[in-house]
Design brief:
By secondary structure, this protein is an alpha/beta fold. The chain has helices at residues 2-27, 33-36, 49-52, 59-66, 78-81, 91-102, 133-150, 175-180, 184-195, 211-226, 247-258, 288-294, 303-322, 365-377, and strands at residues 42-47, 69-72, 106-113, 157-162, 200-205, 233-236, 239-240, 262-270, 327-332. Bound molecules: alpha-D-galactopyranose. The site of alpha-D-galactopyranose has 7 residues, from strand 3.
Length: 378
């Protein structure tokens, strides 16, 4: 007996060591951004359809290693999820949520009420005449309650209203505002809360480090909260550049917003190309005179520009880390440079580099630096 058990341990020993090693090989993965920032905030990415469907092979390992929160880039916007008055389209959103659950992600939905990517019929009767306030409120309630209700308890946070403000902090005269009035925002939050009382509900907008717009957002959100209606906090989109915002303005606005609830950076990207707003929509194949100056990095990002972007990302993450007790999530708007909307906005056909991963799906140097930054804080 003794001999046999000895023989057994003789054979089993190496086997155990071998399987332990191979297991470690399989499960051990390089710590990513999400690990480095675990005790500070979620690291999120906006996903396109092929990414949450698992069809984008480049994105798969990146999502696995670096991200623990997701936002649907387009598939839960009104035009996609509710394309006709009596037709919702849930196939994609269902898969998006299932993907997030399978990966244990903090799942965000974007965006219930917005003036863009919302079909005209939303605001009109069949004959094209505008809806009344009550009719539009009923349509809004149906939209919000149908969608939020469907994913009750499964989606952690909703961008309830997107971009309701002008840059001077006044209300944008969108059809929501002109037909319903200023209280459309509070109604949207009320309907969302009724549909899922536990979900986080955010007001989301761009240029929020600008003091006038920040104060407008605070006025708006505060007035809703004072009526006892839940707004969990503010989503600062974060479409930033080398000179915008200043770190001081970024920090000041985070501090101000934190008095109202959670702060999330919801759509971070850092522009490296020349501003092109004045050429909005210009076709560079036609305007060849503009092509070189507006689209200078078709052959790759020069190291000094990459360095400048790295420094800017780092400076911003230093601010985020400093106020990590107030920030619950930092989400980039896209996964790799090739996915970014910045390749086609404000003019199409540019080669842009706004994100943390390059077109081939490789980490840019900034990723390691951001990981180091978080680790140095520990
Ligand atoms: C805004 C919206 C996003 C997205 C970006 C650009 O920031 O909130 O959904 O459309 O513009 O793509």
């Amino acid at each position: 007996m003794k001999e046999r058990s000895n023989l057994k341990s003789y054979l089993l020993g190496p086997l155990i060591i071998f399987s332990f090693l191979s297991c470690a090989e399989v499960t051990e993965h390089k710590p990513g951004l999400k690990d480095a920032y675990k005790e500070y905030f979620y690291i999120g990415a906006a996903l396109n359809t092929s990414q949450y469907k698992g069809e984008d092979e480049r994105a798969k390992p990146i999502l696995e290693t670096h991200f623990n929160s997701i936002t649907p880039e387009n598939d839960m916007k009104w035009e996609n999820i509710h394309p006709e008055p009596d037709r919702f389209f849930f196939d994609n959103a269902d898969q998006y949520v299932a993907f997030g659950e399978e990966k244990g992600m903090f799942i965000i939905a974007h965006a219930l009420i917005w003036h863009q990517q919302t079909p005209n019929w939303v605001f009109e009767h069949e004959d094209g005449t505008p809806l009344t306030r009550d009719e539009l409120l009923a349509r809004m309630e149906n939209h919000i309650k149908t969608i939020v209700g469907r994913y009750k308890g499964r989606i952690h946070g909703w961008d309830v209203v997107n971009e309701a403000l002008n840059d001077d902090g006044t209300m944008r005269e969108s059809p929501w505002y002109t037909i319903i009035g200023e209280d459309y925002v509070e109604k949207a939050f009320q309907f969302a809360h009724e549909a899922d009382p536990d979900a986080e509900l955010y007001y989301n907008d761009y240029n929020l480090p600008d003091p006038e717009k920040a104060d407008g957002a605070i006025r708006l959100v505060k007035s809703i909260q004072e009526k006892g209606i839940k707004v969990s906090g503010i989503g600062m989109q974060g479409h930033y550049g080398f000179d915008y915002p200043t770190m001081e303005a970024l920090e000041t606005s985070i501090l101000k917003f934190s008095e109202l609830g959670v702060v999330a950076i919801t759509e971070l990207d850092i522009e490296v190309l020349p501003l092109a707003f004045e050429y909005m929509g210009a076709d560079l194949n036609v305007r060849v005179d503009l092509a070189d100056s507006l689209n200078p990095f078709t052959e790759g990002l020069p190291p000094e520009v990459e360095q400048q972007q790295l420094d800017t990302y780092k400076a911003m993450f230093e601010v985020f880390l400093k106020h990590s007790d107030k920030i619950n999530r930092v989400t980039t708007w896209g996964v790799t440079d090739g996915d970014s909307w910045k390749n086609y906005w404000p003019i199409p056909g540019r080669t842009n580099y706004p994100l943390l991963f390059d077109r081939a799906g490789n980490e840019k140097r900034v990723v390691e630096e951001l990981i180091r930054l978080a680790e140095e804080k520990k």
